[in-house]
Here is the input.
Amino acid sequence: MAGGIGIGLCLSFLVLIVVGTYSAAAGLAGAGAAGGRALGLAKGAVPAKYQNLVQKWGTLCPAMTPALLAAQLYSESGWNPNAVSPADARGIAQFIPGTWAGHGIDGDGDGDRDIWDPNDAIPSAASYDCELAKDVAGVPGDATSNMLAAYNAGAYAVIKYGGVPPYNETQGYVKAITTLAKSFERPIGRVAPSQQAAGAIYFAQKQLGTPYLWGGNGTPDQDGRFDCSGLTKAAYESVGIELPRVANDQYNAGPHPSRGELLPGDLVFFSDDLTNSRAIHHVGLYVGGGYMINAPYTGAVIRFDKIDTPDYFGATRVTKDGAAALPDRSVDAKSS
Here is the structure.
C-alpha cells in the first residue's frame, strides 16, 4: 500500500512538472539569449587535450570563434586524430593530402607539418578557414557564413553568387556548423526552453518499471526494453526529434544550461572524465527537483534517480536544429 502511494505521488509530481514545462516553454520561447557571440567554450565540450589549441586558434580571425572551430573538427572526425575517410581525408581535421600540401602549417613550431598531429592539424584548419574568409571578405552578408560556404563550395562560388551559393549541400553545411557551434559555446545568456520537453518526459514516464537492456532500443523483439541512450533517443523521437544513438553524441544536440538553470526535459550526462564529453557513459532525462528518469544498468529497471552524483557532467537542452546538425555516427550503434 505504501509503495503504491509512493508511486502515485511521484506520478502526480511528474504531471505538475510536465504542465510546468509547457508553461515555461510558452513563457520564455520568445526571450532570446543576451546579445553578442560567446568566445568561451562550454565545460568539457572539447576534450581537455585539445581545448587550449581550439581556444587559441579559434580566435585567429574575426569570422572564426573557438566554438565554430570545435564544431568543424567534431563534425569532421569526432576528435579522432587517426580518422581516415573513404576519400582519403586524414586526421582530426580531415585534410585531403593535396589540400594539406598547400595549406598545412607547422602549428607547434617543431619544424615539420604533420597531417596526423593535432598540434599542426588544428592550427591548419583555423588558418585555412581564415584564408578563405580573407578571400571572400568583399562579399556582402555574414562573414562567418561566407567563410563556411567557401570551405564547402570554394571561394569562387561565394564570390560568383554574392554570398552563400544556392547549393543544397553548401547551405546545409553552413546551417549545420553554425547550429552545432552552439553546443560548444559557453552560454552568455538564458538558454531558450525546449518546446518538445514535456512530450519527451511523457514518453519516458510510460517506460517506468521496464527492465534495462544494454543496446536496447525499445523494439518488440527486445520486449520494449532500453538502455540509457536508447531511452532518451526514443523519448525525443516521440516528439519528432532524431537524436544520435550514443550518449556522448547526444550531448551536442543543443546548448548547455548550468545546473541551476535546468528545466524538465533537459538531458543530463555523467562522465568518467569531467573534462571530456567524449568520456560520457550515461544519460538521463531531467524531470525536476534534482531527479531524472533513466535506464541505469543491467539488473535495474527504468526509474527515478538523483542527478547530483560525483560523475555528473552537465546538461543539454535539445533543439530540433541542434539534433539535425549532428553528424551521422551510426557505426557506433550502442552505448551504456
About this structure: Confidence is low (pLDDT under 50) at residues 1-13, 18-36, 331-336.
